[in-house]
Backbone:
């Protein structure tokens, strides 16, 4: 039977995180350097490495069955594919960037201006939703320099930290589109029972890996008289586990917590009588 074919970006911002997600799904992936395709050893999946711009069309045409790609690219290419899962990584935003010395207080001020972007479709939809008429100049790269060259009044580009904007004497203005990596699937896959069932298995593993990503396992010893306080502090998903220890005045407390809360609660825990606090990663989590 045929393997499911997954397309991911060959070399770029999505590559490492896409591979990491697959590894967290328990897939054994050999080193792939410079190869166009590899087969996963312990799962019926072939991985194709492609330019990200080509992925929506390859999935649409059934060259690949599924793909991992930025939502910005899927929407811009308007390929006939379905987004079946948000993957929560490579989050970024398409923003209007304006020259440092200008102000843009209201979207309506974009009326009649010229805006340079690599995302003409997303931008024109945004403008028409907001009933604004502006000229769009399509540029394939280095959009940030167009305002200083006098090619455009404003830009619309992907921004995460804003450093590239600052280097080009631009600043952030209105948000146009929020993106993250998504899993897309070809519509043809529904007709193939074998591939549909491989995909269902993969999706189950992806959900479990994504659930685990934001959680950590915390363990600590707690003085019995501080236990009530400690249990109040721990933002546990379920009730924490309390275990007795050889030493009579101590208990061990284990819990699953959201990763980002650890540094907020660690001092409070110590103050309430916790010691030997350990924080461990969780690989998978089935809720
Ligand atoms: P390719 O050579 O495959 O065409 P590319 O240069 O078009 O690559 P990258 O810069 O690697 O693409 O970006 C891939 C995707 O990563 C983008 O489409 C977007 O979804 C996301 N991305 C882009 N910039 C950022 C950022 N600063 N932070 C997080 N994610 C980003
Ligand atoms: Mg690209």
Residues:
């Amino acid at each position: 039977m045929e393997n499911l074919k997954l397309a991911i970006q060959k070399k770029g911002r999505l590559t490492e995180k896409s591979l990491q997600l697959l590894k967290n799904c328990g897939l054994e992936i050999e080193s792939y350097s410079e190869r166009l395709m590899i087969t996963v050893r312990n799962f019926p999946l072939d991985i194709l490495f492609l330019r990200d711009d080509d992925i929506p069309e390859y999935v649409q045409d059934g060259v690949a069955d599924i793909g991992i790609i930025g939502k910005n690219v899927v929407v811009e290419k308007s390929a006939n594919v379905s987004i079946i899962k948000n993957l929560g990584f490579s989050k970024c935003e398409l923003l209007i960037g304006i020259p440092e010395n200008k102000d843009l207080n209201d979207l309506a001020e974009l009326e009649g201006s010229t805006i340079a972007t690599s995302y003409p479709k997303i931008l024109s939809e945004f403008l028409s939703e907001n009933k604004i008429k502006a000229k769009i100049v399509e540029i394939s790269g280095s959009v940030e320099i167009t305002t200083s060259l006098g090619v455009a009044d404003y830009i619309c580009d992907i921004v995460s930290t804003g450093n590239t904007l600052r280097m080009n004497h631009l600043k952030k203005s209105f948000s146009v589109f929020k993106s993250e990596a998504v899993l897309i699937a070809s519509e043809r896959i529904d007709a193939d029972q074998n591939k549909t069932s491989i995909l269902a298995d993969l999706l189950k593993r992806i959900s479990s890996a994504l659930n685990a990503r934001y959680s950590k396992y915390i363990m600590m010893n707690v003085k019995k008289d501080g236990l009530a306080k400690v249990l109040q502090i721990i933002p546990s998903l379920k009730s924490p586990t309390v275990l007795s220890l050889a030493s009579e005045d101590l208990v061990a407390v284990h819990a699953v917590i959201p990763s980002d809360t650890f540094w907020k609660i660690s001092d409070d825990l110590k103050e309430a009588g916790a010691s030997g606090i350990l924080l461990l990663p969780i690989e998978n989590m089935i809720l």
Summary: The pocket of magnesium ion (ligand 2) is lined by residues 51-53 (CB under 6 Å). The chain is about 25% helix and 35% strand.
